[in-house]
Amino acid sequence: MSAADPAILYPQHVTELQIRATEALARGGFDHLLVPSGTLHYQVFDDRDYPYAVNPQFKAWLPLVRNPGSWLVFTPGHKPKLIYLQPFDYWHVVPEAPSGWWVEHFEIAIIRTPAEAAQHLPTAVERCAILGEPQSALGGFVPNNPPAVVNYLEYHRAFKTPYEFAMMREATRIGVRAHRAAEAGFRAGLSEFDIHLAYCAAARQDANDLPYRNIVALNEHGAVLHYTELATQAPGDVRSFLIDAGASFGGYASDITRTYAHDTGGEFQALIDAVDGAQRRMCDQVRPGTDYRRIHLDAHLALAGILHDFGISRLSPEATVETGVSSVFFPHGIGHGIGLQVHDVAGFAQSDRGGTIPKPDGHPYLRTTRVLEPGMVVTIEPGIYFVDLLLDGLKRGEYAGAVDWDRIAAFRPYGGIRIEDDVACTEAAPLNLTRDGFAETA
Ligand code: GLY
Ligand code: MN
Ligand code: MN
User: Fold this and answer.
1) Angle made by CA atoms 239, 243, 244, in degrees to the nearest 5
2) Top-level CATH class of 5-156?
3) Which atom of ligand 1 is nearest to the CA of 212?
């Protein structure tokens, strides 16, 4: 799909949102849905603003991510209204007049100050579900975030429309292009900081646009799950590279991790290949009716098998999992839903009326527990890491003899491995957006 396709796909998307919003309002007993785009936030005792982050409930409707002070208003049976702030401002670039393929689907009111929005909001404030942050309050229009409304919308947001798939495919394409530039930087011996710059240059995105902070980790730094330090000096001896970095498009995210060995004929490369093979099989589990918790627990068993095959664990795969030893090497969840937010909402939602599906005992970091259905997009991101803190705990505990410490010492300088793809559940075989993205530009 090309970036032009949203024009064709968007009408169905905005219709679907209206259907969902109509039901959500009925559930909550409201007549109008109001969604402020959000406001700038300021640093404490300072006049500097934080990077603006749009209200996800707003960008669900519109590919607008740089428009603080605007509002979306939806009343069932009426065309959605966009109250669009184009401030009188000579300090900053003022948003251009609304244009593009989405404009015709809205009644648009241009305002010049944030306060003017109130003139365009419904008069009966008590009949409004207002979804936003407290700072977006405008007079009596104070965000109330009714649970019945929010639960419904967030639960159904897991089911992507064809428009959303197109946006996520484009976010993936951008990320893949940047990942290729980053790998080239690694092979050329760049520092983490310079690899990061190469990534941003290829993506044409920087920290304000990227869906999360880039994780660019050489050698042992790969063992820090969310390593974002960006050392400016390249290490003398470059052994490995873990990069977890995504891209944004029209408000949608991609989330991609790859791990590379400097010596492509060595044992660390063999370990990467083993995790990669297991990861592909995990991706194939993204099918309707599969409990995401099953994928997570199966991943532990598969990774425990690799730990055994590489002489790291002396226990059987089953015993490696049962004793908790697998969690020392794979200490996070297998993934999460993704879409408008890199960690998309409602990962634990039992139904569109609320409730929580619990995590399996002993797995506190799993971010999704839902049963997969067509339309959902999740990440699959297994890893094997050599984390000093966790290894020290293992060494002091009753299962210290379960592992070969010489083998661990051999792998420790490489940090760790994570392979992460964004995978869509369909009626048929899973769609691996990330692998498709890499294949397109192979
Ligand atoms: N990039 C954060 C994550 O993979 O969840
Ligand atoms: Mn992820
Ligand atoms: Mn990631």
Assistant:
1) 155
2) alpha beta
3) 1
User: What is the rounded CA–CA span in Å between residue 367 and residue 243?
Assistant: 21
Q: How many angstroms separate the alpha carbon of residue 244 from the centre of ligand 3?
A: 5
Atom of ligand 1 nearest to the CA of 257: 4
Q: Which ligand is nearest to the CA of 422?
A: 2
- How far apart, in whole angstroms, are the C-alpha atoms of residue 207 and residue 343? 17
> Does domain 162-440 bear CATH number 3.90.230.10?
yes
Q: How far is the CA of 34 from the centre of ligand 3 (A)?
A: 32
Model-level pTM greater than 0.90?
yes
Q: 324-352: per-residue pLDDT in tens?
A: 999 999 999 999 999 999 999 999 999 99
What are the per-10-residue average pLDDT scores of the chain (442 residues)?
74 98 98 98 96 97 97 98 96 93 97 98 98 98 98 98 97 98 98 98 96 98 98 98 98 99 98 99 98 98 98 98 98 98 98 97 96 98 98 98 98 98 98 98 82
Distance CA 62, CA 104 (A): 12
One fold for 5-156 and 162-440: no
3-state secondary structure of 295: helix
- Residue 168 Cα to ligand 1 middle (Å): 16
Domain range list for the chain: 5-156, 162-440
Closest by alpha carbon to 71, among 97, 38, 95?
Answer: 38
